[in-house]
Amino acid sequence: MSWTRQITSTVLRNAVSPASSRSPARTTCMAFLGGPRHISPRFSHTTTTPIGAYVHSIFADVLDGKEQQAEKLSPAQIWAERSAKLDLPPPPDTWTGRRIPVENGSLQVAFSKLNRRIRSNNMFKEVRLASRHEKRGDKRARLSSERWRKRFADEVRKKVQLVSTIRRRGG
């Protein structure tokens, strides 16, 4: 187990059920968070790293002497308090990325956004292609042709831009 995972699990275990100040878990937690370093000085830099600052901000109430209050709370209450402090987006579900918000009751704007997203993702083409079976060789040839056309169009676009910049310069 890597030392970061070991320390993080120790910090989490210690935060849920704070131990006495002399226990090894408490000492490791303090060393990880930049407190007294009884275990190893190699963890002294961790409060400057993002994970160290994150863990330090979440578990600061345990380190500030509020351990007696934390002992009275159940683990579920402790996690509820800490998760309330975090500003996290809702967890992903089946419809994440598929929703189009309807703002101010304007369905026309929502439908235009939906249509734009459908066109940008080539969904009509995918539905048309999925309606019938395509042989492997034909699919390979079609994809190769599409790649070639895309590269060719990019090269033509670059040449047209080059010619237009040369004309603007008067060359």
Automatic annotation (TrEMBL):
Example GO molecular function: structural constituent of ribosome
Keywords: Ribonucleoprotein, Ribosomal protein
InterPro entries hit by this protein: Mitoribosomal_bS21, Ribosomal_bS21
Top-level taxon in the UniProt lineage: Eukaryota
Keyword Glycoprotein attributed: no
Pfam families given in the database record: Ribosomal_S21 (PF01165)
Gene Ontology cellular-component annotations: ribonucleoprotein complex; ribosome
An individual GO BP term: translation
Family recorded in the similarity comment: Belongs to the bacterial ribosomal protein bS21 family.
Protein name according to UniProt: Uncharacterized protein
